[in-house]
User: What shape does this take?
Amino acid sequence: MNFHLALDPEQLDIALLALMAAEDLQPEAMSLVDSLLLLRQIRSAVVDEINQQTPMAHRIAQLCDHLYQRLGFAVDLERYYHADNCLLSLVLQRRTGVPITLGILLLHLARTLSIPAQGICFPGQFLVRLGEGEQACIVDPADGKLLDRQGLEWRLRGVQGNLARLNSGHLQAASQAEVLRRLLTIAKGCYLQAKALPQALRCSELLLVLQPDDPYEIRDRGLVYQQLECDQQAISDLQFFIEHCPRDPMAGLLQEQLERLQQRTPTTFH
Assistant: This one.
């Protein structure tokens, strides 16, 4: 496991954290050193073209124009659910990704330009707030376009139904750890869909570095262990979940799976 992820994520740059995670999940894709060099090139291509003395609204507009129009960063519509889109190193290389990785890049560049920037774990899609006070705006990191309240409500209802109402909680700033957890959770889903079980397991392990006693993540890890036929590890994780969340709707179903695993797994005496 990449030890750096055990450090306080609030003290590190969010792009650096995402690149560390990418190297951990797929070390053969691109080294951390090469990824950081590529990030520096992209940062220079954007920052060097923007006058940091201009009003913040102008800097925000120029940043989005450079990143999405001139450099051509965009959502990968053809392979949206491919795990490569969750690896920031490959996103920098291919210039296509998904909102969470494009948003992390946008956060990094904005902060380099002294633009206050916050990630928002909005239902259904990651968003970015740029600026502060009356100058603050919500940006869709998929394309760099600004979202007004009507657009936000439309997106919320698309996820939660027509009765959903936008409130301040939906736009609460996410911590660095929360952004990283969202990235790893999306990556885990992509790996599971692709039946890439070792990588999905790795995502669970990294998520548990960030939140060690999360019973739902321990449950998910146990289910991956079960598919990998690592029965002892699966039994331990599923037992933990059932003990800590006995009233969860899945507890009864998992109890049946647990009993079947215990029947086929010999007891080990020490």
About this structure: The domain at 176-264 is CATH 1.25.40.10 (Serine Threonine Protein Phosphatase 5, Tetratricopeptide repeat).
